[in-house]
Description:
This protein is mainly alpha-helical and 123 residues long. The protein is 47% helix and 7% strand. The chain has four helices and two strands; from the N terminus they run H-H-E-E-H-H. It has helices at 4-24, 49-70, 88-95, 103-109; strands at 74-77, 82-85. A hairpin with a 4-residue loop joins strand 1 and strand 2 (82-85). It is elongated. The chain starts with a helix and ends in a 14-residue tail after the last helix.
Amino acid sequence: MYDANKIIPGLIIFALFMTFPFWYNLGAEAYSTPELELPEDYERCIESTEFMRAEHMNMLDEWRDLYVREGYQEYWSELKQESYPMSLTKTCMYCHSDKEEFCDRCHNATAVDPYCWDCHIEP
Length: 123
């Protein structure tokens, strides 16, 4: 009933198969956040750097919905206590005008293909 000749090699093969991703990634280079070229007259963004890194895509989706569907045109920044137009080209791309050096560098590193440029014209 106990057939060690088949069970033990089967368990070893199973363990190797299940841990293969860990062994495969041991030699891989760890991901590091790309260094971005900020504008020369850059002081700070409309929100904090941490917020923009984590939430800019949600913010742009929210802006699109509020602008197109509900007619809101202004965004109030809690950080700067100022109002900004809800516009990718008038607000974001005003400072970050070099798409290849700013947007594409992070999007390529994280393998993300944003659909912003389906409607907007690249600067």
